[in-house]
Amino acid sequence: MTLRPILIHPDPRLKKACPAVTEFNDELRMLADDMLATMYDAPGVGLAAPQVGVMKRVLVMDCMKAPEPPRPMVLINPQVIWSSEDTSTYEEGCLSIPEQYAEVTRPAEVKVRWMALDGSVHEEQFAGLWATCVQHEIDHLDGKLFIDYLGPIKRQMITRKMEKLKRDRARA
Question: pLDDT tens across 69-90, in order?
């Protein structure tokens, strides 16, 4: 298992839609293992493949809170097949936009269909933090960031902070 570096916004790879996964092999399993390790290490509750520079429709998530046992999930080619009319607003953050948070309103519940590492198809209805997380990560696979839901001034302010963070890290 390898911890992979997480891309920081702005990075053009974070704005591109990812193609579907067509090969289910050891390389994909290794990517999933690395992504889970990277997400837990960060620490975060979700991570999408483009955030580690891999342009594939793969996301990992685990929204369980201690002392509950972890529930690591790997979703390949996920798609929302139903969403509730009810909405919920969460203060979202992102591992690619460190230490920046903003309220985003999304459907409160979603049903998602995806493939597992063995290629089998699964469906599950998510609510609460799980629903927010899966929608946030699917957005990444479509080249969309949570700041894209914000007004232009707030989005530009956060982008400038990230540009400064990247400059500071490059000097360190």
Answer: 999 999 999 999 999 999 999 9
Task: Identify whether 137 is a catalytic site residue.
Answer: yes
3-state SS, the chain, equals: CCCCCCCCCCCHHHHCCCCCCCCCCHHHHHHHHHHHHHHHHCCCCEEEHHHHCCCCCEEEECCCCCCCCCCCEEEEEEEEEEECCCEEEEEEEECCEEEEEEEEEEECEEEEEEECCCCCEEEEEEEHHHHHHHHHHHHHHCCCCHHHHCCHHHHHHHHHHHHHHHHHHHHC
pTM for the model: 0.96
Which is catalytic among the residues 91, 103, 109, 137?
137
Choices 3.40.710.10, 3.90.45.10, 3.10.20.30, 3.40.50.2000: CATH for 12-171: 3.90.45.10
